[in-house]
Each structure stands twice: as C-alpha cells, then as structure tokens.
Amino acid sequence: MAVTEQEVLGQLRKVIDPDLHKDLVTLGMIKNVKIEGSHVSFTVELTTPACPLKEEIENMCREAVGEIAGVELVTIEMTANVRANVGKGVPTQQPLAGVKNIIAIASGKGGVGKSTVSANIACALAQMGAKVGLMDADIYGPSIPLIMGVEDEKPEVDEQKEKLIPIERYGVKIISMGFLQPSGSAVIWRGPMVAKAVQQFLRDVQWGEIDYLIVDLPPGTGDAQLTLAQAIPLSGAVVVMTPQDLAAAVAVKAVSMFKRLDVPILGIVENMSYFLCPTCNSRHHVFSHGGGEQAAEALDVPFFGGIPLAIDIGADADQGTPSVVLNPDGQYAQVFREVAERIAAQVSIRARSFIPLTMNA
Ligand SMILES: Nc1ncnc2c1ncn2[C@@H]1O[C@H](COP(=O)(O)OP(=O)(O)OP(=O)(O)O)[C@@H](O)[C@H]1O
What we know:
Blueprint: H1 5-12, E1 30-36, E2 39-46, H2 54-66, E3 73-80, E4 102-106, H3 114-127, E5 132-136, H4 144-147, E6 156-157, E7 164-165, E8 167-169, E9 172-176, H5 191-203, E10 212-216, H6 223-231, E11 236-241, H7 245-260, E12 265-276, E13 283-284, H8 291-299, E14 303-309, H9 311-318, H10 323-326, H11 331-350
Parallel strand pairs: 2-3, 4-10, 4-11, 5-9, 5-10, 11-12, 12-14
Antiparallel strand pairs: 1-2, 6-7, 8-9, 12-13
Helix pairs in contact: 3-11, 5-6, 7-8
C-alpha cells in the first residue's frame, strides 16, 4: 500500500520538541512533505539555527517516519526560521522593522565582562547561521568597537541620507555609540538623554533582516539603564555576573529592575566562573563557587552556564577578535556556543505564543 502524507504527519505528531513541549506538526515546523514510492522527504523548520537539539530532533523524525510500513528512505532538510518576539507593546515602543528579537545583555555592575560576552555570543549566533546585529548602548564606555576590531571604522549613511549603515564584521552588523563620538572623549549624559539618543539611534540604523539584535547595555541599575531598558522593545534580558557574593547581590538588583519593567529575564550567565589552567587544563574556582547557578535558582530564571576566566578570552577580545572567531574549534568557543544556543532556545520558548498553532505541512 502506498505511503500517505497523513501517515507521515501522524508519525511526526509523535515527535515532541523538547523545549517547546508540543509536537512538530502542531508547531508548524514540518514543511514540503513529498512521497515518491518508498522515499519520504520533508523539511523541519526549527525556531532557531542555534538549536542545540537539532540532531536529536532530526533523529527522532527519521525514526518516527521510518516506522511506517513501506518507507525505505527518509530525507530530511533541517532549516530554521526565527520567530519574532519584540516586547510586550509598551505604547511608546514601536517594533523595529525587520528585527525579530532584541536581547539586552545587562550587568549589575561594571567590569564583569558583559561586552566580551555580548560580542562572543553575537559571533557564535552568526556562525550558526543566524542574522545578527550587535548594538553597543554602553554610552559611558563603549567597548564593542575594540572587541570587534572596528575601532577605526565610521558607519556610512544610505543614499537617502536617512539611515546609518552598520559596520559588518565576523558576519555581525555592528553599531556603537562609540562610532559617533571622537575617540578618547567621555560622554556625560543624563539618563533620559541617553534613552532618547539610543532609541533614535536604534531606529536610524539600516538593520535589514535581523534574527537577534544583541544590545550591550551600560552596566548598573541606575536611571540610565532603567530608561534605556524601557526605550527599547526588548524580547528579554540576559544578566551577566561574576561568582563573587557581591556580584550575585548586584545581579539580583538587575534582575528585579527588569522584572519591574515587565521585561522577561531570559537567564543568567556567569563570567570568570573558574580559572582554566592553560598548562594543566584543570579548573580552579578562584572565587566562591556556584554563585550564578544559585542566583538563577533563587530568582527562578534559567542558568545559561559559566564562562572560564582565561587569559586568552580577555586577550582575544582586547585584540579585536572574539575567541569564537579567532579559535572556533577551541574550548572557549565551545563554551560560548553552548551559552548562545541556550539563549536562542530560551528566546524560542518565549516566542512560542507567536508560533502558529495550525497544521502547516
Ligand atoms: N572570561 C574572561 N576571561 C578573562 N578576561 C576577561 C573575561 N571576560 C572579560 N575579560 C576581560 O575583562 C575586561 C572587562 O571586560 P568587558 O569590557 O567585557 O566588561 P564589561 O562588563 O562590558 O565592562 P564595562 O563596565 O566597561 O561595561 C576586559 O579587559 C576583558 O578582556
């Protein structure tokens, strides 16, 4: 008996997305089902190219369809279409055309490595095939141009002289408040001014199609951060902290700021989590251990992982090439990629209300 599309979809209904807890057919992820004799082919459209469960999902699909009597060959094309989820629609916030998700990277205090983490995550997502933007909103100390090696670049304006064209490096579209100020000069702006400037800045950029716009916020939880976080239609915030007790306390402050603003906390990243000895490759917990994980648990938000304190991570960033780019096969790249995948998965989970709950084969 000939294999039918109904049978194929019936089997794929048994495959549950481990993150979204619904079957792939209901989630609208199955496309282009084709049956030619004993050969079944279809496309699985994931919600992010950075899906850590890509292989697992492919295997589950192959197994499920392979169980149908008469099927001898299953060809699966794995693609991704990032779902949009930008903010809860605060009246003053307009979504940015073409930008599907805006993720703020925040910290309760300065120097925790927020910009280093932002740049590595942006590059990691781009390497995995996502369309990524990186906006440096850290007006007090913009360090993204340095980390991304674009310090001497100045963005051009488009032909209509209306929008700035972001600088592209390592597959990431970059815009920084630092591009607009002469190097070496410090900007002393009050909170509301910063928010207004950043909001306008954000809109005056020709972003094009962006799956994830990573926004490196200024450190702290003062007025500037508050107004800024309100000004941007955020999908969610990632809080970066270090393992010390005090850092946990300030991270808690950052988390509560976002909660007050109704901005979902995507999760916590612990930077300089442990020292990875370059000689013996063993882990040393220089500071107290497990602070990030404990803070995440106490605040009931996901823990995205710990990034080691490593001379190379700092040196790579300071020399203008994030570690994931400089050494994509290295162990630091692996750690950053895992964190990026977990963030992307969390964004997909948050955006699930935007997923059409219709059969979409
Ligand atoms: N995991 C790491 N291992 C080693 N050095 C790191 C690590 N992360 C960041 N650094 C270094 O720490 C310094 C501060 O990092 P970064 O500028 O990213 O912090 P920040 O939190 O963005 O700071 P700011 O307060 O300026 O916003 C930099 O010199 C950077 O190279």
